[in-house]
Design a protein that fits this description.
Structural class: alpha/beta
Order of helices and strands: HHHEEHEHEHEHHEHEHEHHEHHE
Largest sheet: 6 strands, parallel
Number of strands: 10
Number of domains: 1
CATH architecture: Alpha-Beta Barrel
Radius of gyration: 19 Å
Bound molecules: 5'-deoxyadenosine
CATH superfamily: Aldolase class I
Length: about 350
């Protein structure tokens, strides 16, 4: 099927499963360069009219590389004996937030493997202390699936947002990527309950993960449409040498751009980050992602000594233009794209006063 017109918001909102699949298939497998350019241009127009031509910066702190799960794609999976494991103390995390604060960041993402060490009070304490010391920051957690009572406890402690990529909305595909203890339904329920609690929530998936196809991507889009998260993280799959997926090919950066643009058209006000995985393929894709409707970047604030150990895939970029200490250059580069770099809390449109 050819699409003469770039799909508008209502096309994306009304498309049934067959139409959604045809759209995704067309833009991934049949569209010309010109078709794709039109799609990107429509997506950045939608971003600009809905939330302004700007990019929200968030400081990323990867505070623990321990993980209890065995996600077959991830270098931090529990079965990887070669992974270097570290944990940052509460004090180290707070000092890192302070460093970011001095650089101008007011939005922080605390990310880790699924590490129970923090679950019996430590993480709650870290969140409440960070909000006590820096009341005007936003705190986003990206720490995996938790006991449901913890979502409420952390929210009450001051956590504003929670990122939990659903990874794939197709149950069978999910089972091929994860150990048997994990289920898509659990991620879905977690995301729904966090939204109910009042978090700004983020879902997402890897592009080109093993066994992904147009059908599973269609499920992803239908799932995202009904969930309506405040943020969607999409980055290409990148193999890690110590995982069972080490020989699977890297996901396509161009497909990532296409899906970013389609997501922007479907959810006009959503926060769409340029992921480190995409920038790690080639730094030029960062500019391309901004041109395809992305509006968030998360420079790395993780202390230097830990950066190489947070190795979820091979060749992860954590220096130069991905490093928070280079925020001046990062802002300058954003400006050359005709966009403004925002270092405020950067709430989703629906959460602003
Ligand atoms: N390639 C790309 N992204 C990955 N992630 C984990 N492993 C990889 C990989 N090999 C992504 C997952 C996870 C997020 C923190 O990083 O989608 O949710």
């Amino acid at each position: 099927m050819r699409f003469e017109e770039v799909p508008c918001e209502s096309t994306m909102l009304c498309a049934d499963k067959i139409e959604m699949k045809a759209l995704i298939n067309f833009y991934l497998n049949e569209a010309s360069k010109e078709d794709k350019d039109k799609l990107y241009s429509a997506a950045r127009h939608i971003r600009d009219v809905n939330d302004g031509p700007r990019v929200f910066l968030r400081g990323l702190i990867e505070f623990s590389s321990f993980c209890r799960n065995d996600c077959f794609y991830c270098g931090l999976c529990s079965t990887n004996r070669n992974a270097v494991r570290y944990r940052m103390s509460a004090q180290e995390i707070l000092e890192t937030i302070e460093e970011g604060y001095k650089l101008g960041f007011r939005s922080f993402v605390l990310q880790s493997g699924e590490d129970p060490y923090y679950f019996s009070g430590r993480l709650t304490e870290i969140v409440s202390e960070s909000k006590r010391q820096f009341p005007n920051i936003a705190v986003t957690l990206s720490v995996g699936v938790l006991d449901p009572v913890l979502y409420l406890e952390l929210f009450r402690a001051g956590a504003d947002r929670f990122l939990l990529r659903h990874e794939t909305a197709d149950e069978n595909h999910f089972a091929k990527l994860h150990d048997a203890s994990q289920h898509f339904s659990l991620r879905k329920e977690s995301l729904e309950s966090m939204k109910q609690i009042g978090y700004q929530i983020g879902a997402g998936f890897m592009v080109g993960s093993p066994f992904q196809n147009v059908d599973t991507l269609t499920e992803d889009f239908l799932f995202l449409r009904s969930l309506a998260p405040h943020m969607v993280g999409m980055g290409p799959f990148r193999p890690h040498q110590d995982t069972i997926f080490s020989r699977f090919p890297q996901g396509s950066a161009e497909d990532t751009l296409v899906l970013t643009a389609l997501c922007r058209l479907m959810l006009p006000k959503v926060m769409l980050p340029v992921t480190t995985a995409l920038a790690s393929c080639d730094i030029k894709y960062r500019t391309d992602a901004f041109r395809a409707g992305a509006n968030v970047m998360m420079p790395c604030l993780t202390p230097q000594k830990y950066r190489d150990s947070y190795a979820i895939y091979d060749g992860k970029l954590s220096s130069l233009s991905e490093a928070a200490e280079n925020v001046v250059q990062i802002k300058a580069q954003i400006l050359t794209e005709g966009l403004r770099a925002e270092m405020s809390r950067g709430d989703h449109f629906d959460f602003r006063d």
